Task: structure prediction
Amino acid sequence: MNKTMSTTKRLLIILVILAITVGIVILYLQMSAHKLLTDATSARKAGVGIPVAVDTASLGQMEVFTPAECLLNASSTITITSDLKNGRISAIPVEIGTHVESGQTLVKLGDELGKLAINKAEKQLYWLRRTAYERLRMIQFYEKNRDIGQSLEAEYRRSLIDWINSSNDLVKSEHDLEISIKKYDDDTNIVSHVDGVVVAIPAHVGQRVRNSLDILSLAVVSPMDMVCDMPEEKLHLLRKNLKVTASFYGFPNRAFHGKVTHINPLVNETKRTVSILVKLANEDGSLMPGMHGLAQIRDSKQALRIPSISLINPHLESAQVLIVSSENRAYLRRIMIGSSAGGYTEVISGLQTDDQVIVSGQVGIQAGDIVNIRSEENIK
Result:
């Protein structure tokens, strides 16, 4: 009898232990199930917070790059004319398409009157040199023999004065010859005062020139004018003096730099675009008018920003985000947005600094849902 009761007690103890173990296992599985709830519907049914990851709206530096297709134009076209009233074109050492540098000779003119003036000055200089040389010899002669008598002393003084006058005339004649040669060079050598490309040569060799005759046209290519068309919805991103980096199909491995100098106040009604003008450096003359390229317009500014992945249904300048209240409840809010760069989007209005926005786990969340904030890597 005692042996039977002892066996029954053992069985009861084993059953109690087994029941407790099963209960612990079931509780553990339920807790694990709650931890693995990642979608809003399951979490809502289980009565627990929906797991989400959040980030904070904060002020930060934004480097905004706005792309655009562009076309190169010469910054201006200069017409070279002649101020010479009498002469002929003797040579044109350039041709259409030639790249010229500032100071390079474009046209040489033959000036008959200028040549005559130089010849006259050279002849006058020759005779003045001979006269000065002869009077110098007379001074030496009278100086050597002036002890003979008083008259020779007077001759010496007179010859000295004549030599001084001749020397002064000689200096003036040399100066006049330099002026004649310089004037001849200025009149007969037409040089470029800018870096550019020859685009037209209406004159020809042998043609007699007259005052204000159009001889040559030059397109200025340093700097270049780059015209870019931007969609009108990007107008708020544009302002003068923004830095621009451009690349061209002809030079795929080079970057050219400039800045925005003008924004067209009129929008193209058909294309719905606005044109901007960029002055682009071209010191080595590599770029040519008519080339097509791609530009990146860069703007650096301090702005209120949020991660771009937090945006819901972004369209043009507006979007929605889910914010988390102090009671850990989610609410939908419409915001106005600006530029995007580096994974962040500028907030124009609708949020304040330190507002929390949901960046992961937004799917299925409804206004007023309780959320459970976790790190993003724990939300699968």
